Amino acid sequence: MRTLLVLLTVLLLAGGVQGDLQPQTEEPEIFVISVDSTNLRFSPSQVTITEGDTVRFFWSGQALPHNAVEANGVFDSGEPARAVDYAYTFERGSNGTYDFVCEPHASAGMVGQITVEPAPPLVEEEAEEQEEPEDTPFLSGSATLLSMFLAWAFVSRRHGNG
Predict the structure, then answer these.
(1) How far is the C-alpha of 65 from the C-alpha of 147, rounded, in Å?
(2) Strands 54-59, 84-89: parallel, antiparallel or unpaired by DSSP?
(3) Which residue numbers in the chain have pLDDT < 50?
């Protein structure tokens, strides 16, 4: 009976081997840009981020309305407002430099710049993802069948001898 219990334990463990074997990737970050106390500057006015990161334009209770508009129309926080909460995520392939302005105060120098650096390549992760689905079910299926066969053989042999 002890051997049967051991075999059943092996069977259960063989089915649970399929954990997430993918390497962990770095979490995207959120960078907040607000309006400083002079009311005519972004703070910070320059940020460097990585593809996949998000820039959040956030301010409230300002004396004057503001917005954040990228020079080529990549992002636009909307009409100037005293309270803004707008976020834009720079996806893979968007590396480069992005200049933005507060439309009502561009002539006063209320400008900013976001530099987006390329994210690390995904080549290794994609290769592992493709191999894993093919190998894992076969391995677990084979281990399950082997465990079931060994359990059947043990029980049959025990009943035959007893």
Answers:
(1) 70
(2) antiparallel
(3) 16-24, 162
Spans of all domains in the chain: 30-117, 124-162
Using a 10 angstrom Cβ sphere, with 0-12 exposed, 13-18 middle and 19 or more buried, the burial of residue 91 is: exposed
Q: What was the pLDDT predicted at 18?
A: 45
CATH architecture of 30-117: Sandwich (2.60)
Kindly tell me the burial class for residue 63, based on how many C-beta atoms sit within 10 Å of its own C-beta (0-12, 13-18, 19 or more).
exposed
The predicted pLDDT at position 68 comes to 98
Backbone angles phi, psi at 123, to 5 degrees: -55, -50
In angstroms, the CA 115 to CA 131 distance is: 35
Give the Cα separation of 143 and 9 in Å (integer).
12
What is the structure's pLDDT at 17?
44
Q: Are 33 and 77 in contact (CB under 8 A)?
A: no
